[in-house]
Amino acid sequence: MGTFLDKPKTEKHNEHGTGNGLRFGVSSMQGWRIEMEDAHCAITGLGEGLDDWSFFAVFDGHAGAGVSAHCAKHLLECIVATDEFQQSAVADGIRSGFLNLDDRMRELPKLASGEDKSGSTAVCALISPRHVYVANCGDSRAVFCRNGVPVFATCDHKPVLPAEKERIQQAGGSVMIQRINGSLAVSRALGDYDYKNVKGLGPCEQLVSPEPEVSVINRVSATDEFLVLACDGVWDVMSNEAVCDYIRSRLAVTDDLEAITNDVIDTCLYKGSQDNMSIVLVAFPAAPTPSPEAIQRENELEACIERRITDIISEKGEIDFTELVQRLYDEDIPNLPPGGGLHAKRNLIQTLHKKMCPSKEDTVEPCVNRFVDWSLYTPPPPPPSREMQGNGEECRSSSSSSSSDEIDENATIPQD
């Protein structure tokens, strides 16, 4: 089946932790892809004078997992070791760390020989007591939620963006079917050295650039809620607003961040994502907390779904899972999780279907066939709104840091 499996691998890798007033949860899943190429990093307390700093990152590999795995292990050390970072120019240090890592990796034996042709997008966050430094290279994305809304999102680096397309063409390439030379779907990445060999051009002028876009967000303790870092397997099927709405609704019923991240990627799978999926959720002190009222509403919703499934099966007898789902959509069930909808309750529906329709059980293992598009049952999610990317401005393709009343590109270590 080409690059896809016959059935998705839904087993998840989870992590969680606390430190520096932050809580985090991680979930990653291979899904429909024949290989797991994602990697991630989550550290609270960096040591060596940075005990009150934390680092989180997601790496989405392509053409193999070599580069993403190496970046997960070494990006932070490359950033911290730069002269700029040591001299308190944090944003500049992050940029140099990306470029230094990309230059160093080129010499690794498998990459140098061409045996390994992999590359990886990267999105990361360095969190200090006063600032959140966000860097993105490629189409993995960070979204920052404050006071109930996504107030900042990184810009996806795609070949069709005007400045990206101009660089690609000046390096002798072309953009066809929204890809570099009709092949690579991202315009910035680490690795991908086959696209970085144009003589006479610097590393940031090649077909694929390793240069990150760096932004600095001033922390607001009273209203900062959470930061989401995720690969495009999530953002392909859920908008910034949908992810934030869904996570907020889950935070109101549980403080288990691992469970929430699992719910997000399960929901994305059922919305039609066919990619690897990885997500890091970082909760700040002002994040929503479970409330008895929200928990009661959740219990009532699940009881309502069970009653409706019972009624449908009583009327129709044992039915296929897909038909049951379609009937539930026709029921227009109220109070479903915002941003997730009925997709967010798919695991519950499957459990009840197995219990009530045992003869149909094999038709739903481990989940609906990948050719069944759940988006057919509900309007597909809107694409990420441009006004929410690049700190409320149109998505930018330059590498300059964002700045506003809440974005400070000149923040330095001593200020923290």
From TrEMBL:
Q: Does the keyword Membrane apply?
A: yes
Which InterPro entries does this entry report, sorted A to Z?
Answer: PP2C, PP2C_BS, PP2C_C, PP2C_C_sf, PPM-type-like_dom_sf, PPM-type_phosphatase-like_dom
Q: Which residues form the PPM-type phosphatase domain?
A: 23-284
Q: Is Lipoprotein one of the keywords?
A: yes
- Alphabetically list the UniProt keywords: Cytoplasm, Hydrolase, Lipoprotein, Magnesium, Manganese, Membrane, Metal-binding, Myristate, Phosphoprotein, Protein phosphatase
Instruction: Report biased composition (Basic and acidic residues) as residue ranges.
Output: 1-16
Membrane protein topology class: Lipid-anchor
Q: Report the superkingdom from the record.
A: Eukaryota
SMART domains in alphabetical order: PP2C_SIG, PP2Cc
What coarse category fits the chief subcellular location reported for this protein?
cytoplasm
Cofactor(s) recorded for this entry are: Mn(2+); Mg(2+)
GO cellular component term, pick one? cytosol
Note the PANTHER family from the entry: PROTEIN PHOSPHATASE
Q: Tell me the protein's name.
A: PPM-type phosphatase domain-containing protein
Lineage of origin: Eukaryota, Metazoa, Ecdysozoa, Arthropoda, Hexapoda
